[in-house]
Amino acid sequence: MCGSLYLAWHYVRRHRWTTAVLVAVITLIVYLPAALEVIVENAATHFRARAASTPLIVGARSSALELVLAGVYFDKPAEAVIRVEEFERIKRQNLGRAIPLHARFETRGKGIIGTTTAYAELRKMQFAQGHVCSARGECFVGSQVAAELGLEIGSKLPVASSGAFTLDDAPLRLNVVGILAASETPDDEVVFTDLDTTWILEGLGHAHTPGAEHGTPAAAHFTDITPENSASIHFHGDRSTYPLSAVIVVPKDLKASTLLMGQYLSPERTAQLVEPTEVMDRLLAKVVMVRSYIVALTSIVSAATILTIALVIVLSIRLRQAELQTISKIGCSRFAVFSILSCQVLIVLTISGTLAAGLTIVTDVYGRELVRWLVL
User: Fold this and answer.
1) Please, which pLDDT band fits residue 367 given cuts at 50, 70 and 90?
2) Which H helix or E strand runs over 244?
3) How many of the other CB atoms lie within 10 Å of CB of 101?
4) N or C: which end of the chain has fewer CB within 10 A?
5) Residue 376 pLDDT
6) Which residues pair with 96 in a beta bridge?
7) Within its chain, how far is the Cα of 127 from the centroid?
8) Which helix (H) or strand (E) holds 337?
């Protein structure tokens, strides 16, 4: 057997390009279904973990999936809004903790999330540098935002807003006061500030030269909110009508959760309450179904490819008849010839299996980063 393996090894080395093609094809046949399984499982784990940390979310009545993607995963700026009065109503019932979110603006391609310190407590945020916002115009950023935009404590982030706050459409500049430690969640990819700042961006509040009347040339607007001009910031209208993208609700217990959900069953309500875990489970069920179809199609293609490889091997043996006859003439038995051919196939399969296993392990190790890169 050692002699057969020795001859087979030298044969595959001699025909390295043919061997390389066979190894590559077999490796892909084994690796692709395994990689798909690993990636889907990593994605499912990633999505379910985030959804599980957000028991309930309230938002405008529209697509439940869009609400979850916008309010839990910060996939895109929210379009539909609810009013602060909805948040206040939930808060008054004392059935759990209510955390408001307002996410309609971006800075340099990164979403801006207006919220309260309760959100940082819910997510158990850890800071690499700095702290949470303590004043209007301040922000803290996710680790990926800081890395990609080259931010540090004291950096300024310009945010295009309505002209109600600024003069000649100059952007409001947010002052970076904190940088989050990496958490491998959507929080790494966004900028956090307080609700007042997002409402200033909405044009509901502004600051200008103290004592100046609205609409006069003396009412020069500021692009930076500082301790000196912060006192001059004022808001217009009823705050209960101000917009929010969503409200995260952490109910006290199952009874509180049931009571809250019952309040949003009527189709006449302009707001809806959804369970992110339920929404993501429905989405992932569809993903698993699609994966099954892909695996089935891959299996058919793989079977056809294996048959093609078998045909190539058979034709290769027929072309090597003169070589095999020479081996027989020098004293090798039929079993020895069979052993040599079998060892050649075994070597190719071993190399392919090893490569496929290695690639699958790498995919599993870096699968979370790959999923984050694909979905964030």
Assistant:
1) low
2) strand 243-244
3) 26
4) N
5) 47
6) 251
7) 21
8) helix 334-365
Residue 114 sits at the vertex; the CA angle it makes with 111 and 234, to the nearest 5 degrees, is 125
| Nearest CA among 308, 326, 305 for reference residue 316 | 308
Contact 115, 102 (CB under 8 A): yes
Which residues are bridge partners to 97 per DSSP? 250
Which residues lie below 8 Å from residue 24, measured CB to CB, with a gap of 6+? none
> Please, are residues 103 and 112 in contact by the beta-carbon 8 Å criterion?
yes
Per the CB < 8 A criterion, the answer to whether 178 and 153 are in contact is yes
**Chain position carrying tokens 């296993």:** 357
Task: For residues 294 and 286, give the distance between their C-alpha atoms in angstroms, rounded to a whole number.
Answer: 12
d(CA 24, CA 14): 17
Owner of token pair 């680790």: 143
> From CA 360, how far away is CA 326, in angstroms rounded?
42
DSSP reduced 3-state for 84: helix
pLDDT band at 371 (very low <50, low <70, confident <90, very high): low
Is the separation of the CB atoms in 67 and 103 below 8 Å?
no
Backbone angles phi, psi at 230, to 5 degrees: -60, -35
Nearest of 168, 172, 150, 49 to residue 106 by alpha carbon: 172
Tens digit of pLDDT for each residue in 186-197? 899 999 999 988
Cβ 337 vs Cβ 327: under 8 Å: yes
Residue 243's φ and ψ, nearest 5 degrees, are -80, 150
Q: Beta strands of 127-189 (E only): which ranges?
A: 127-130, 138-141, 156-159, 172-180
Q: Given the structure tokens 């009571």, which residue do they identify? A: 259
Q: Give the pLDDT band (50/70/90) at residue 168.
A: very low
- Say how many C-beta atoms besides its own lie within 10 A of residue 21's C-beta: 12
- Going through 221-270 in order, the beta strands assigned E by DSSP cover 234-235, 243-244, 246-251
